[in-house]
Design a protein that fits this description.
Blueprint (H helix, E strand, L loop, with lengths): L3 E4 L18 H13 L3 E6 L7 H12 L2 E9 L10 E9 L3 H14 L7 H8 L7 E3 L11 E3 L32 E3 L2 H7 L12 H10 L3 H19 L1
Helix pairs in contact: 1-2, 3-7
Amino acid sequence: ADGAVWASSPCTDFSTANAAPRDRSSLTATLARHVLDVSPAWLLFENVPRARNSAEFAELVRSLRAGGYAVDHRIVNALGAGVPQTRRRLFLVAARGADQRVARAALRRFEELCSGEAVTMRQRFDAAAVACPTPYIYLQSCDERRRKSIFTLDGPAPTVRGCVRPLRPTYPFPPRDDTHDRALVFAAAVEHLAALQCFPSDFRWCTGKTASARCIGNAVPPPMAERLAHAIAGDQASTAS
């Protein structure tokens, strides 16, 4: 078979934000079996950085190499890809029947394409024509008593999570928040999450608010997916010539 398979196994058992593991990490290793059955020319895999240290990820790499794939992986930040988030993610590239240098060159090119200037949330919201009533945004963290959840629009967001919540009256305002003035803060809505993930402004979500937020938070930002596709296509062209 030709073409490519893109896979992102559940990150909940690897994420630092996960308080209750669901024991789905084995799906990472199981992926190799399905890829070898289909035998695509390329596998593109994405997950949170901590997945790289897991036994399941090591088994995925071992199985792919044993099945005739050249494999390389590294952690890349979305911030230089035009995505206003400090979103670090593990990316793996596997090329069927190729020299190891092919996979390595594809990821090196991907890193280069993701090394542009950082953009702020304000710049992205303005470009997407998404209204922001105040200069600070509430993006719920996994531990609001210790972690920052309120950010100025003049900087990047943290990694966007798949949830939208109102700023509740009992919110504790930890010291690291960019403001403690409730009147200056608005809570992110689905359209803000979609803009921060850089979905097109005319993209329509056919689900409710909760499910839409989850889909957005679990997605690979489209600019990163596009850059990885260009990196793969470029290496295919160079190896064919």
